[in-house]
C-alpha cells in the first residue's frame, strides 16, 4: 500500500541541482488591476507589490477575488484594466506559456497518461531541454519532494498528497520566476495538509522562489507566509505579516476573518473601551460612544475571584489547550482559551477577566466616524 | 430511499431477465446460422458456406467487393470528420465556450431523432449540387454519414472529455510552457484516446450497417450490395450479413479490450 505521507525526508543537502542553482526570486506587482466577468466586478483597483523570494498568501472567503488575482498573474485571465509585472517587466498580454511560471492547482492536475517522471519532465520538454538532462532534473525534483520512488507510477496510482507533491515538483523543476499555488491543499486530509504546507514553505525558502499562495484557510496562511493579504470584495483589506494581521487588524473584516474573536458591546471614551467593566486600549482611533469590540479568546482568562460571572455552554478539548464558550447573565457569549487540564462541563459556573490588550473597534449604527 | 442495488432482481429472476434479453438477440442470429446450414438435398451441411470459395460466384462477390470498397471509403471520410472536425470542436467548446456546450449537444444529438428517410429528403437536393460540382463518386456521401454518426460519436467523446478535467489539464500544460497545439496533441488527445477510438469504431460500425441513405441516393455500399446479392443468392447474402455482424462484434470487443486494458494499466497498484 502506498502511504499518503513521504516515505523519506526530502533530500536536505545542497547537492540537489534545483537547490544548487537557486535564484533570488523575481519581484511581482499588480497595478490598479480591475477584472469584470460580465457586469460583475471581481477585482477592484487591486494593488500589490511582492518582493523577490517572498511568500505571500492571498486570504479571503469564497468569491473575494483571490483566485482571479492569481489567474490574472498567470495569464489565464486577462485584466479588464491595469497591469501586472514579473521581474520588473510588464506581462499583461503575454501568453501564459511565455510567462515562466510554475503553478499548482486545487484540482489534481497531473497528466493521467504520463507517469510521475514524465509529468515532471513535461515543462522541460516544452523548453526543448535534452531528454537526458530533463530526466536527470525531473528525478532531482522528485527527490526534492521525497517521491523519487514513485517515478514510474501513474497519477491514478498515487494518493492525493503524493499527486500534489509531484505537481509541486513539476512546477519547480523549470526553475520558474514565480510559483503560484491555487489552494493546492484543500482536497487533502488535515494531517497531510499540515505536512505538505510545511514542506512547501521549506522548499520555497531553500529555492528562494517568489511564491503566491491562495487559500481560504487562515491558519494555513498564517503558518507559512512572510506576508498575508486579506481580501474582501475584490480588493485587499490589509496586507502585512501574520503577526500584524492577528494583533493589529486594520478593520473589523480582517479581525473577523483572521483568528477567532468574541464581539462584545463597549463604550468608547478617549481611545479606551469599557467592556464589561474592563478598560481596554483600542487599535487606532475610535469615536467616543457606543461601539462593538473584538476580543481574542487568549485575552480572556478564567479567574477564581472577581471578574464577570458566567456559565459554561460548551468546552472543546484542542490537545494543548481548551476553548470554552461561556454566557453571561446578560446573555453575552464569549470564547475563553485556557489550560487543557481545566476541564469544564455544561452549566458550570465560572468567572472571567479580560486582559488589557488592544482591541479592534466596530462602530454601531448611528455612531460618528472616528476622528 | 432504496438503493439501486436493493431494487435489482435477485436469483432466478435476474437469470430469467438475462435469458429473455439474450434470446431477443440470439434467436435471429441462430435462425440466420441455421438458414445458411440448410442443404438443398435435405438436412444441414456447410455447402452454402463453401460457396464463399467457389470461383463461379465471382460476379456476385464483385458486387460485394465494390460495396466493401465503397463502405471503406465512406468509413474513412466519416471517421475523418469525427476526428478532424467534431473532436477539436468539442474540445474548443469545452475549454473556451462552455456556454455553447448545450447547443452543440443538441445539434449533435438531433440526427438520432430524425428518420433516415427524412434526412434523405433534405440531402437529395444538396447532393444534386455536390454531384454537379465534384462528381457522383462515393466519398462525398461520407458528409451525410458524418451527420448520422454525430450522436454516437458525440456521446463517446463527451463521456471521455467530461471525465478528464480537460480545463485544468490544459491550464496546467499552458503554465508549463505548452502552446495551444502542444496542449491538444500532447495532453488532451492522448487522454481522449479511448473516447476517440470508441467514436471511430462506432462510426465505422454505423457506416458499415447503413442502407437507407445510400439506397435512396443511388449509391452502392456494403448493405445495398448485400440486398442485390440477396436477390440472386439469399444464402450467400445471409452468410455475408453474419460475417458483417461478426466484424461488428469484434470491433466492440476491441473497444472494450482497449479501454479495459488502459484502465487496469493505470490503476494497478493504487492505494
Short description:
The complex is a heterodimer of chains A (371) and B (271). Helices cover 24% and strands 33% of the residues of chain A. Chain A has nine helices and 20 strands.
Description:
The complex is a heterodimer of chains A (371) and B (271). By secondary structure, chain A is an alpha+beta fold. Chain A has 9 helices and 20 strands. Chain A has helices spanning 17-20, 66-74, 116-126, 131-144, 160-172, 190-207, 218-224, 242-247, 252-257; strands spanning 28-37, 40-50, 55-59, 81-86, 89-90, 101-104, 178-182, 210-215, 227-232, 235-240, 262-269, 272-275, 278-281, 289-295, 300-302, 308-317, 321-328, 333-339, 349-354, 360-363. In chain A, the strands form 4 sheets. Chain A has a 6-stranded mixed sheet, sandwiched between helices. Chain A has a 5-stranded antiparallel sheet with strand order 13-12-11-14-20. Chain A is globular, with a radius of gyration of 24 Å. Chain B has one domain (64-270): MetI-like fold (Orthogonal Bundle), CATH 1.10.3720.10. Chain B is globular, with a radius of gyration of 23 Å. Chain B starts with a helix and ends with a helix. The A-B interface holds A 1-4, 74, 76, 95-98, 100-103, 105, 107-113, 122-123, 126-127, 153-157, 159, 167, 170-171, 174, 180 and B 164-165, 168-169, 171-179, 182, 186-187, 190-191, 193, 265-271.
Amino acid at each position: 500500500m502506498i502511504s499518503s505521507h513521504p516515505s523519506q525526508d526530502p533530500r536536505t543537502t545542497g547537492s540537489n541541482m534545483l537547490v544548487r542553482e537557486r535564484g533570488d526570486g523575481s519581484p511581482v506587482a499588480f497595478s490598479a488591476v480591475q477584472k469584470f466577468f460580465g457586469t460583475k466586478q471581481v477585482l477592484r483597483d487591486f494593488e500589490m507589490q511582492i518582493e523577490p523570494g517572498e511568500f505571500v498568501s492571498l486570504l479571503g472567503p469564497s468569491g473575494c477575488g483571490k483566485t482571479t488575482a492569481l489567474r490574472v498573474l498567470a495569464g489565464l485571465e486577462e485584466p479588464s484594466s491595469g497591469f501586472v509585472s514579473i521581474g520588473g517587466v510588464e506581462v499583461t498580454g503575454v501568453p501564459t506559456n511565455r510567462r515562466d511560471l510554475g503553478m499548482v492547482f486545487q484540482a489534481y492536475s497531473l497528466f493521467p497518461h504520463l507517469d510521475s517522471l514524465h509529468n515532471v519532465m513535461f515543462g522541460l520538454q516544452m523548453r526543448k531541454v535534452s531528454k537526458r538532462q530533463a530526466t536527470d532534473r525531473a528525478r532531482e525534483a522528485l527527490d526534492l519532494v521525497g517521491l523519487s520512488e514513485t517515478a514510474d507510477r501513474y497519477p491514478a496510482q498515487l494518493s492525493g498528497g503524493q499527486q500534489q507533491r509531484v505537481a509541486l515538483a513539476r512546477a519547480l523543476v523549470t526553475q520558474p520566476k514565480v510559483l503560484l499555488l491555487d489552494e493546492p491543499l484543500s482536497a487533502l486530509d488535515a494531517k497531510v495538509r499540515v505536512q505538505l504546507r510545511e514542506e512547501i514553505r521549506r522548499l520555497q525558502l531553500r529555492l528562494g522562489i517568489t511564491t503566491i499562495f491562495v487559500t481560504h484557510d487562515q491558519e494555513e496562511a498564517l503558518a507559512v507566509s512572510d506576508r498575508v493579504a486579506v481580501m474582501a470584495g475584490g480588493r485587499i483589506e490589509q496586507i502585512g505579516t501574520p503577526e500584524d494581521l492577528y494583533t493589529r487588524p486594520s478593520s473589523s473584516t480582517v479581525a473577523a476573518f483572521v483568528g477567532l474573536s468574541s464581539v462584545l458591546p463597549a463604550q468608547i471614551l478617549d481611545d479606551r473601551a469599557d467592556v464589561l467593566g474592563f478598560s481596554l486600549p483600542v487599535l487606532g482611533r475610535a469615536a467616543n460612544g457606543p461601539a462593538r469590540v473584538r476580543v481574542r479568546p487568549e485575552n480572556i482568562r478564567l479567574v477564581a475571584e472577581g471578574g464577570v460571572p458566567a456559565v459554561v455552554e460548551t468546552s472543546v478539548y484542542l490537545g494543548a489547550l481548551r476553548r470554552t464558550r461561556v454566557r453571561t447573565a446578560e446573555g453575552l457569549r464569549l470564547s475563553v482559551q485556557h489550560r487543557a487540564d481545566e476541564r469544564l462541563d455544561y452549566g458550570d459556573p465560572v468567572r472571567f477577566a479580560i486582559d488589557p490588550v488592544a482591541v479592534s473597534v466596530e462602530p454601531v449604527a448611528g455612531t460618528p466616524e472616528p476622528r | 430511499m432504496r438503493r439501486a442495488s436493493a431494487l435489482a432482481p435477485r436469483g432466478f429472476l435476474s437469470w430469467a431477465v438475462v435469458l429473455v434479453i439474450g434470446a431477443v438477440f440470439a434467436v435471429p442470429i441462430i435462425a440466420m446460422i441455421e438458414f445458411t446450414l440448410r442443404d438443398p438435398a435435405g438436412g444441414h451441411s456447410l455447402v452454402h458456406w463453401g460457396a464463399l470459395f467457389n470461383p463461379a460466384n465471382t460476379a456476385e462477390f464483385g458486387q460485394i467487393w465494390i460495396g466493401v470498397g465503397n463502405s471503406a471509403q465512406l468509413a474513412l471520410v466519416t471517421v475523418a470528420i469525427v476526428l478532424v472536425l467534431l473532436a477539436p470542436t468539442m474540445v474548443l467548446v469545452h475549454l473556451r465556450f462552455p456556454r455553447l456546450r448545450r447547443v452543440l449537444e443538441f445539434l449533435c444529438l438531433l440526427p438520432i431523432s430524425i428518420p433516415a428517410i427524412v434526412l434523405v429528403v433534405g440531402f437529395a437536393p444538396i447532393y444534386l449540387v455536390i454531384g454537379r460540382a465534384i462528381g457522383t463518386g462515393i466519398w462525398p456521401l461520407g458528409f451525410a454519414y458524418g451527420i448520422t454518426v454525430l450522436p454516437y460519436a458525440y456521446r463517446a467523446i463527451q463521456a471521455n472529455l467530461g471525465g478528464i478535467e480537460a480545463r485544468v489539464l490544459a491550464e496546467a500544460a499552458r503554465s508549463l510552457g505548452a502552446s495551444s497545439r502542444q496542449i491538444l496533441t500532447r495532453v488532451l488527445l492522448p487522454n481522449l484516446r479511448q473516447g476517440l477510438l470508441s467514436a471511430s469504431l462506432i462510426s465505422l460500425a454505423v457506416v458499415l450497417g447503413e442502407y437507407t441513405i445510400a439506397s435512396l441516393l443511388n449509391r452502392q455500399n456494403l448493405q445495398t450490395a448485400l440486398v442485390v446479392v440477396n436477390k440472386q443468392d439469399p444464402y450467400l447474402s445471409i452468410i455475408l450479413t453474419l460475417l458483417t455482424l461478426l466484424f461488428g462484434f469484434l470491433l466492440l470487443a476491441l473497444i472494450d479490450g482497449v479501454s479495459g486494458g488502459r484502465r487496469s494499466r493505470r490503476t494497478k497498484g493504487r492505494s
